[in-house]
Write a structure and sequence with these properties.
This protein has 556 residues and is mainly beta. 6% of the residues lie in helices and 43% in strands. The longest helix has 12 residues.
Length: 556
Amino acid sequence: MKRFFTLFGIFALIFAACENESPAPNEELTPEITVSPSGIVTMPAVGGEVELNFQIINPIEGAKLEATADSEWITNLSVDEKVRFSVERNHSDQQRIGIVTLSYPNAEALSVAIQQNEALASGDVRISITSERKTIFEAEGGKGKVSYMLETDDEGAMPEVEADVDWITIDNISSDKVEYSVARSLSEERRVGHITLSYSGKSAEATIEQKAAELLPVLTANATSIRCGESITFSVSYAEEDVTEEAVIFDYYTKSEVDNPYTPAEPAERVFYATYNNRTSKVLTVNVIPEYTPELPADPQPESYDFNQRMLIVDHTGVGCGYCPNMKSALKSLEENSDYAHKFNIVYAYSYSSNEVCYSSASKTLWQYYDGVCSTSYMPLTGYPSATFNFCRDFAAAPGHMASKVDEYWVENPTASVALAATINEGKYVVNVEVKSAVAQNIHIALWALEDDIYAKQSGGSAEWMNNHHSVLRDALTGVSKSDISGIDFGYMQANTAKSKVLEFELFEATAWNRDNFKLIAIISSPNEEFDNRYEVINSAMCEIDGAKAHEYKTK
């Protein structure tokens, strides 16, 4: 049986259309090779195909990466956007190791070890865990995966998987990994469980450890957003038992005890906490909103956290850019494709020329952010058109690669969702926003004003629809800068919770803008270790002024 092992990662493919002026490279910077995976790649005795993802930091114009192997059983070595090679079957009864070396001018060479298991006797079985054998979770729990390798002559073989404790749930078993969930712990002692993978008398075991819980009272309310004159009813639980009658609830700022139910008199963000058994809960924020605030839409699945992701695509474009219709055509095809249309929201940022009717300073700042921040670690913008994905994904200027980029960056299980309702009241945007989060994380929110139905003759346009411009970025209500486009702090959210806020912004409207055609996009993000903890998009939602957009869930 032949198995193929493909190792995925990030690499940016750039096609320069209309060249954009950029500063000359600093010749003192030394190139550096990075590769994923690094260190050791483990292969089964049967062999297979391998892909290594690489990146050159501080590249030299015209230079290319080269790859060599020190072993004859590593064959078909090639370098294009990835390093690719084949590993032949190991017929010996000895494990073997080969080295693939990556070289680039003026850079320190980088080596990756290819470790291949010894051959199995006919009918024999080998099962091994290729990820960390021990994983430690916080008391809040979460999701994890165990990567494994099963070597056998049986075609399509899959192991039996079992957890020895009820707080570990096996979610999915595939040909190379087991996905599982760890429940929240209510124990004040550390606990340990195991996941065992078995096949034909052979087994491998992964250890799951969970830290002890620090049990605190949990304060909740029947609503986290109410209008003036409405009442809040509080509940307090401890170790999942209702202790509301015995608990005491306080105003966080005045430290005074409050009634339950409680009726606030004025619009404000109110903060409360509860005490029980000499322990104090985390604070609970209740947004007391003005009467003119638009109603949030009803949550179609209030108990669900199985969200759909609308990733953010920004098309950096221009009316006067003759190559830009190629990107617009590619995006239009995706919007009309039922397999892709539900996976993204598009914002068109016209920064090509400040003399164009679709141009805005916010669009230019977005360009400067991607050109100045992300390109220091990844691939720079080189011209128009260019599409950027989420806040810090690499760039695709080649329209033909749009679908593959969506495939690569779209997240099947996003950690949060955003819903909103928007209106304009007395010269202000009034936006009622709710975020639901499946995990504990800090959230930023960006709100951008977009305009539809702008007519401008598109250079290079081959069809009339290209002269009608939609979702054009006009204003970033929460601000954008050359160093940060993630918006404002929405706050820290606990796992499986929802939080709402009402945000108000002064209405700015340039002479050429038509606010009757305005709509808003809300973009939520959280820190991502992959990008040095810069904020990366989790999800987005778009709605008309005087309209609303509900949380969006997966369709079964």
